[in-house]
Amino acid sequence: MSIFATIFAGLGLFFIGVKLIGGNLRLMAGRGFRAVIGRAVARPSIAAALGVVAGALTQSTNAVTFICINTVAAGLVQARQILPVMIWANVGTCALVLLAALDVHLLVLLLIGTVGLLYYLELDKSARFRHLVAVLLGVGLLFFGIDLIRDGADGLRRMPEVQTAINYGHSSFILIFLIGVVITVIAQSSSTVTVVAAAMAQAGVLDLNQAIIIVYGAGLGSGIATWLMAAKLSGTPKRLVLLQTFTKSVGIVVLVPLLVVEMQFELPLARSLVEFLSPRVQEQIALVYVLYQLISAFVISAALDPFYRLIQRLYPETMEESLFKPQFVYAGGDIEAETGALLVEKEQQRLVGFIRDSLDHVRADAEAGKAGRPKPQLLHQARQSVGSEISAFIGELMGSSPPRETMEHLAGLHSAQGLLDDLGNEVHTLVMHPGVYTPASSLASLINNMIESLHLIVTTLFDELEDPEAFRYSSLLAMTSDRSDMMGKLRRDLIRGNEALGNTQQETLFTATTVFEHSVWLVRRYLSLVNAGKLSAQPEPLVASLSRSGLAPRP
């Protein structure tokens, strides 16, 4: 019983150590990690190096994968750029396995004593040092747990039942492989399972072939665990997770057949290589893990573009991703200010389209329940997201010290963005108001007429922005004439003539007329910028300017 208790305690300390190391290193590196990714992914070699570092720090490819997913979702990088970080994070996890293969018993005892002293000095309560202290504690517990596993496994090896199981394992490598898969799915870490397998092999509970099979099963189990964690994802996040699963699986496809051939025909292949490199079985298993991760990373990197095209076909971009992603502007691009200003105009036209589509949901003659149509809340969130990207992009362009004329153009675009933000918020208030969907009978006709009028104004603005040279300023100006006196009189007359209107109906009337009045005013203010020549009166059409600059809208 003491043997199993020793092994169980060792596993407990080992898992506590893994959690302390990974969790606190992520907190230490997490604040600026996404920003670092954004700067590093421009060059694949630097992105790969960053992936190795990230994997070594977090000891969790799942953590790195979901950090990368969030980075792409935040618009800091494009999905294709982030792939080397994810792929090479698997190689970074070798750090723990290699370190665990060394005989550092004395150092571990000194480390645990040092950590105890740090806790006595209350450095664990310091904002500056508490995560570092926790990492050191995790390292100490991890290696102390490995020592306990080795001690318990040495006694376990001498048990007759274990000897029988070992002999059976020689003829049932599929079972051992499945054990590696299942344990890794539960533990969520192939490096963790590899370290435990190495400790068991050093104690003689497993032979080298069995330990190698467990390592390969752990690799597949890690891929399955990643896939299961992303069961509810779709679109680009799903593609990134699937690529990580492929990365973890491709090494298995290469190395398992090599091991079978080596065992059946006694050819010197992967197992012979690690035996040549080190006489210690624990180090041999660590080298197998390194070899597996390197082969996986190199193979998937060499065929990355075909792999990713296949994944794109399997999981195309979702409607939400298409809405939330800017199509023309993008931060950090090397683009001249004049051309960037023209791209901003095209992106702002999309925002007008979002506002128009939101109004479609409350129009009496629109099929508001039509399947596949973006809902108002989704359009509102997408407009806010894209609007933030536009504002940041304008800020970058203005910070590049453009010529005075271009700076004035950018200033006009900045003002226009504020007007479009306000217009979108006003329209969202209208379309989300419950009284607009079920107005009192005496208000229904009025509210429907205001919605139709506002929809016509916004639709006309959208259509005219597509062809700035033919922009009919005078017709839109007439459509957006001052309505404040008319709206005020209308509100007073309706309330006086409908004494039966309750508080809810009066509030609906006030909201609808106020939003309509303010929205029309915002469109008119936007038109004043157009008429002043700060937006669309450019000497060169957008397509010609992009062609001259060698740029194209973002796909």
From TrEMBL:
Subcellular location per the Swiss-Prot or TrEMBL entry: Cell membrane
Transmembrane segment boundaries: 6-28, 40-57, 95-120, 132-149, 170-188, 208-228, 240-265, 285-304
Keywords: Cell membrane, Membrane, Transmembrane, Transmembrane helix
Predominant location: membrane
Entry GO terms, CC: plasma membrane
Annotated membrane topology: Multi-pass membrane protein
Biological process terms in GO annotation: sodium-dependent phosphate transport
UniProt key word Transmembrane: yes
Domain of life: Bacteria
Keyword Cell wall biogenesis/degradation: no
MF terms in GO: sodium:phosphate symporter activity
The name this protein goes by in its record: Na/Pi cotransporter family protein
